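Residues determine shape. We examine one folded chain.
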Amino acid sequence: MRNRYSRRRLRISPSFTAGLSAAVVCSIVLCPLAQCQNAAPIGAAGGVGTAGGAGAAGGYATGAPANEVTKFSGTLKDARGNVIIVTREDGTDCMVQFPDDITLLSFTAKAVPAALQRGTPIRFAMAIGPNGAPISPVEKIEIFSPLGPGMVPRNQAARFTPGVHQAGRQPRQAGASMGGKVDVVGTLMMVNPQGGISVQAGGTPVNTMVTQDVEIEVQVNNLSLAQAGDEVEVEGFYNPPDETKVKAQRIKITSDRVMGETPNPANRKERRKSKQDAKTAPPQQDPAAPAPETP
């Protein structure tokens, strides 16, 4: 009998982007963006905690909390410590301090199946029957970066704690069967060619299938994968009249890059061909040189 699940052939790639590898092994990695060197660094004039900066009048100084709400979109320009520089849609650069809850800082990007490697922390939702067996394939998988217990608020703990958790706010009754929708958090152990995955969710092994068009997304709570030019959405507060220094309540960074995607070989071939053509091309004659004599 043919399996009623729609299957997809997934292969584990032996290599993946170094940035993603760094993201899944580090709790919080703050990588400055080398693409921009013009933003004032921390401690410099106009920076956070200096005269004229966020630590002075007009900023978010201690004892004078920001009280005006702001919400805007823009592009990432630079990052220094716990502050990012965002260029708003009107062209204005804003200094945005991280939210106190690090889970409210997020970087999101799409990924290809090659991103699913053994040992990768993943989480997904699925439906299971009263006996614990999955009754439908997984439609979306998130690759995430683990956070330490002290960094995760209680209402977000299940998203970072390995195990099989009952979906929703209501905890499962003692002795009740684990049926319905559950959230699985664990370490990827295997992907088979028929579209099945094996995950070690804490002390519980989970084996299930994925849909043919399974969505794979990278979602980390740091800047290890961010690059200048990525889209940024900011919600936060500022002290008027200076709305360019913001204490964030939420920062969402989204990239249009696809994680785990290998460069197009055709582009490399074209570059090699152009270099070879340049080497074999006849030397160009200097227009100022005298023309050769004809017999």
Observations:
- The helical segments are 18-25, 157-160, 265-280.
- Residues 20-107+222-259 form a domain with the OB fold (Dihydrolipoamide Acetyltransferase, E2P) fold (CATH 2.40.50.140).
- DSSP finds three helices and twelve strands in the chain.
- Residues 1-18, 24-63 have pLDDT under 50 and may be disordered.
